[in-house]
Amino acid sequence: MTNYSGPDPSRIRSMFASISTRYDRANTVLSGGVHHLWRRKAVRLSGAKEGDRILDCATGTGDLAIAFHKAAGPSGSVVGTDFVPEMLDVARAKARAKAPGITFEVADVTKLPFDDASFDVASISFGIRNVNDPKKGIAEMARVVRPGGRVIVLEFGQPRSRAFGAMYDFYRRRVLPRLGGMVTGEQDAYEYLERSAGRFPCGDDFVALMREAVRFTSIEVKPLTFGIAYLYRGVKA
After folding, report:
1. Are the CB atoms for 228 and 159 separated by under 8 Å?
2. What is the SS3 assignment for 167?
3. Suppose 222 and one of 13, 28, 35, 231 were both cysteines; which one would form an S-S bond, judging by CB atoms 3.0 to 4.6 Å apart?
4. What is the distance between the alpha carbons of residues 5 and 17, in angstroms, rounded to a whole number?
């Protein structure tokens, strides 16, 4: 049994609301822009194609939803949801210029307001560790995709290499919170994000959590950038 209790939802909502307008800049500074590459890999692994119906949960400022919009094309549809309205305000402004066909809705991934089998793909990037009940979130994402549809999760992990892991731990613990605080003015938020990334299950442990949440016919896992992040694809039974 994989036990993980996530943070208080009201705290997460308040925290992300406070950094919403500076969130994109902080992501680019803290990751050196590599988070865009990780999202493109998520779209490729999903197998999203022209005409697909795609749901991006905890979409934040909409980067992954916008990337999926390019794959789904004009005959497809993309919905981005988040439970932080301030993040969606930023997402809508970005999408007006880059992907005007995306629909954004306020919704919690553990209580999605969609019918069963409504989508071909459901995704979440760097959000599942902020969910109070990650298993429930995964189960809801699986519920709203059709049989044979894909659940895609992109999340931080812990590098397996001892040498690289030591360097990354120093950056994650000592540099990231201070740098994030300098960019956004909210160092407490990045101290939380550092702690949550360090203790969240990754690799085989997260695959076990997915299997406990719902029955998948297959689950694929890919470490990214030496294990700083992990990409998971579950195919719905």
Report:
1. yes
2. helix
3. 231
4. 22
Instruction: Report how far residue 208's alpha carbon sits from residue 212's, in angstroms, rounded to the nearest whole number.
Output: 6
Burial (Cβ within 10 Å: 0-12, 13-18, ≥19) of residue 20 = buried
> Which of 186, 230, 185 lies closest to 206, judged by CA?
230
The Cα–Cα gap between 121 and 232 comes to: 13
More confident residue, 172 or 112: 112
Instruction: Tell me: pLDDT of 4 over 80.
Output: no
Sheet holding 119-125, edge to edge: 103-106, 77-82, 53-57, 119-125, 145-156, 229-236, 216-224
For 90-139, how does the pLDDT look when each residue is reduced to its tens digit (9 = 90+)? 999 999 989 999 999 999 999 999 999 999 999 999 999 999 999 999 99
Residues 119, 62, 228, 197, Cα dihedral to 10°: -90
Query: ∠ at Cα 106 (101, 108), nearest 5°?
Result: 125
Q: What mean pLDDT is predicted for residues 60-66? A: 97
DSSP bridge pairs for 79: 55, 103
Q: Residue 97 is encoded by which pair of tokens?
A: 């210029």
Overall pTM > 0.70? yes
